[in-house]
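Hello again,

I reread your note about wanting to compare the complex against the isolated chains. To keep things tidy I'm splitting this into two emails, and this first one only covers the full assembly. Below are the input lines as submitted, including protein chains and any nucleic acid or small-molecule components. They are followed by the predicted structure of everything together. The single-chain runs will come separately.
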Amino acid sequence: MKRTVFRNRWLPYVLVAPQVAITLVFFFWPAFDSLRLSLYRASPFGDRLIFIGLRNFERLVGDPAYLRSALTSFVFSFFVTFVGLALALLLASLANAKIQGLGVYRSLLLWPYGIAPAIAGIIWLFIFHPSYGILPWLLSFVTAYQFNWFLKGWVAMVLIVVAAIWKQFGYNLAFYLAGLQAIETSVLEAASVDGAGPIRRFFAITFPLLSPVTFFLFTLNMTFSFFDTFGLIHSVTQGGPGDATSILVYRAWKDGFDGLQLGLSAAQSVILMALVIVLTAFQFRYAEKKVTY
Amino acid sequence: MRALRQGCAGIVTLVVTLSVVAAPATSWAKTEIQFWHAMTAVLGERVKEIAAKFNATQNEYEVKAVHKGSYPETLNAAIAAYRAKQPPHIVQVFEVGTQTMLSSGAVFPVYQLMKDHGIAIDWNDLIAPVKSYYSTGGNLYSMAFNSSTPVLFYNKDLFKKAGLPDKPPATWDEVEAMAKKLQAAGAKCPSGSAWPSWVLVENMHALHDQPFADHGNGFDGLATALKVNGPFGVKMLELLARGAKEGWFSYNGRLNKAEAMMGGGECGIFLTSSAYMGNLTRASEGKFTWGTGPLPRMSGFPQGNSIIGGATLWVLKGAKPAEYKGVAQFFKYLASTENQAWWAGVTGYLPLTNAAVKAMEASGHFQKNPNQRTAIVQMNSGKTTPNSQGIRLGNFNSVRDAIEEQIENILSGKKTAKQGLDDAVAKSNEILKEFAALYK
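Full-complex prediction:
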């Protein structure tokens, strides 16, 4: 590693100051405020602030709906991450082949990432809406079964999982493509000479060599599905039907900004914060050991 | 390049100079009044229009109507601004937020505001359901603005196709019988409803004189328990669950999302806010014809009245006396019979004063728009009882969520009506308890 030496003692501090300031104002301050607020019963207009210790957390842990929401979040994240990464890897492998018009395919595959989650939600709404969506209309010619996800929880879940995967797809693909291109062709050629078929080559060489990318994408997709999918859920299902798609971050928003139960909402964001810290620490501690750089 | 740079510099200098000159001039000439609202599309234009009309009548005050998003978003924006000590003068808050506002300590009561400025308004002329919903101890705390009540809409073309007479169903028995015929004739949504909790639970309880919550629905003190899991609520939801199962009742989402089905011409019978009229007129133009009727009743239960929804204008504390004077003038302008009749006529909301109703009758407005009379007739023929004067709950929005979540579980067959409503009550009571603990 090369060490950069600054002549002026203060210059490095001045240079990092804006970043530090942004982090303090937009990350640490709100985080500490949530931490504080989670111990209070707070009125919307701020006229009442009653210290209640861990009562908000007790309420959450004792609420079966909250535990169900936690389970929903994990199921949702699991599918978004694993199915999403598997698909991205598959398509990246195909897009890495030497075929004509490769540039066009690649650009088209990257497109969805440029779309904001809420907009992605609206697009999917137009496709899947039970009354004005095009897909239910087409399906009505084939089957009498009604895919009304306003009432069928599992259909709603599948819908947002697919939408989230699609939305994140371009990003995953870009990283996998870059990863694939970094693999020395000589290694793969040597394996071919030794008689390894494409599938064997993939699992014995490509996949292990891609593990840093996979590791990075895994962490990123978990975080994405836990937090960034808010806009998608808000525009498509609003957490329903029942609470079938009410993931933790959506619940925290709903209780806080729709229900104006600020203390309870803060407690939920503290739990989410803890979850992210644990998840990330766990991944770096255990998963990173298995990663070959 | 050099010319460009000079040009830019010139523009910057010009803008700076202009703003320095212009800024004090405007703020000196007129007192600005911030009016934050949640009205969209046609309704948003009408709000702008009435503010502009008021501004044109005098040159002391300038009401600035600012759209702040949905009702919850507007309330959130006002709360954030209030906490940052930059509150708007007027904020439009939906009926669900009434208790939150009353408890907040952030409100300058409207009756007080008008009294302080020597403006006499005959509050007794307000139509009864509006007055009862927004008054405390006989005093009006917020300025009535846009109120509506749910009514029944029906698609005349679908009725004809199903061989039904051109007459809305008056009871739930008739709704079921007619919806089954509509279903047989191929209607995708034989019967349906928007605003599930407001229409099917809150209003149905009030219409049949059934209590929704304890302490007189929260009017005699902070409510601590919901009562929707009684025999009436269970019977109502059992009927709807059977309808969903048999296919003659169609559920299409929370809030007003189901209105898309009615507007698309798919629904035969549909319950939603009377203020949907304007949008339905536009959506149905050249496609189908429709009519309205009062909400259907369930036999064997007493007569109550439907309750209102919509929003009122709240005045927040923290502004200067001169500004409050402007707010009072603006409210006086809004309250005039002429403007009340205009607002109700162009929006489809209820005319809020008896004088406005009379003026609209006199001008022949209802002859031309008979559907606008339905809601008024419905409310006047009902009986205002402690169960039908309104509902006032803390954290009401969360309570509504809890109810709608369970409506979905009941209609999808995941839970029985009794079980679902019991769960809704348990969850809501927890929410109410928290609010009561906040203001004990």
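For quick reference: The domain at 150-306+393-438 of chain B is CATH 3.40.190.10 (D-Maltodextrin-Binding Protein; domain 2).

B.
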